[in-house]
Amino acid sequence: MERHPLALEGYAARRPEFRTVVSPFDREPLFEVEHAAEDALDHALETARRVQDTLWRETPAWQRAAWLDAAADRVRADGEALARLIAAEGGKPLKDARVEASRAAVTLEECARAALRLEGHAVGMERAPGTENRLAFTLREPIGVVLAISAFNHPLNLCCHQAGAALAAGNTCILKPASSTPRSAIRLGAILRECGLPEGVLQIVPTPGRRAAHLVASPAVDFITFIGSAEVGWAIRRQAADGTRLAAEHGGNAASIVLADADLDHAVPLIVRGAFYHAGQVCVSTQRLYVEHTIEPELTARLVAAAAALRCGDPRDAATDVGPLIEPAEVRRVHAWVDEARAAGAEVLAGGAPLSETVYGTTVLRGAPEEAKVIAEEVFGPVVTVQPVASLAEAIAKVNRSTNPFQSSIFTRDVDRAFQAAREVASSAFLINDFTAFRVDWMPFGGRKHAGLGLGGVDHGVLDMTEEKLIVINAR
Fold this sequence. Notes:
The chain is α/β, with parallel strands linked by helices. The protein has 2 domains: about 5-250 and about 450-475, Aldehyde Dehydrogenase, Chain A, domain 1 (3-Layer(aba) Sandwich); about 255-440, Aldehyde Dehydrogenase, Chain A, domain 2 (3-Layer(aba) Sandwich), CATH 3.40.309. About 40% of the residues lie in helices and about 20% in strands. A 7-stranded mixed sheet has the order 13-14-15-12-11-16-17, sandwiched between helices. Helix 6 links the parallel strand 7 (about 170-175) and strand 8 (about 200-205). The relative contact order is 0.14.
């Protein structure tokens, strides 16, 4: 079995601790990865600070961009191997893993461009007595040492977003991948080093979540970028040292509104994609459907037929549409939530049961009470609930009950009602005639309220990881 020791310059563990990573589909061992002990984490912090204050601070933007561009080329060239790795360790169907590998190359290219766009602005003076003969302008400077804690559901592209933005902004980065999907991050680190990135600039430290608290609390960390559950994200915010800045991307219970004039031929395939892509393990997965009652029976019938036609199973099979959940415990949790909704009066129109220890059937519910977990919380599984409504106003009111709004959408041919919904729905992004899980890697991306803090997307992430400095010249 492959073994992947820590690749930290100048560090060798006295008693290396290896963890076996298993396939989320059949639970078969894939490879072994060394977990960083606390002394390894301390070594990574010391290295990051030293490299930040010396070599990396003096590295110009064009050179950072060149390394990111070279890595993008390598990711694109190695796309098939990376896709198969994503499918194996993360359970994402191969057809979707190929898309993720392709997106990762684009993300690195966007990070390279963002490095070259970092600039300040002129500040007007002479607006009040005593400000004469002065010139003022700002510069963008790197924030320092970035700790990136990533998630399993996009194990390569999310790491590119977090680490790529940190490097583009001129920061050193310590990247802790999800324990269930560390190999994609390890490969990304190796690619960047092979492309010329100096040792110590990006350090990959697989380690258990509880041990990562040692990094989170360190005053040596200047910025934390976190992707994962709200429970962990807000705990990190409380644990971080005074002065450490934070960006957190959690998850939401995304909703789509479908009005009576919607083009169902267009809408239904997109809703199916939004609900069941990566078995619903996406922070903006379509979870709630509020449908005008006159078309609800037809839409529901189409949705049930489409869900039943999806092929569930081995993510390494190119024909698979829906793969496993990341852990068997997640299958049990999702089933408990569906059972709770069923007991409260929801109709189970499709699925509603595990297909195996690791795969949950694509599930369509109808009429669950608004307080049920499948409505009120983030399911993070292949479950969508249809709720008939009498009007757009009722739909908007129900969408806005969410405490973790992220992305929402509407399907309609009426531009006035579409823009009414866009103004009144309280989410950070609103899509018209598209599915809630749509994303390109350069668009702003982030949740409101419990769903997150700050905005991701390459440009926003890079700016977040810099600080603006004002320079004033008294030109007598």
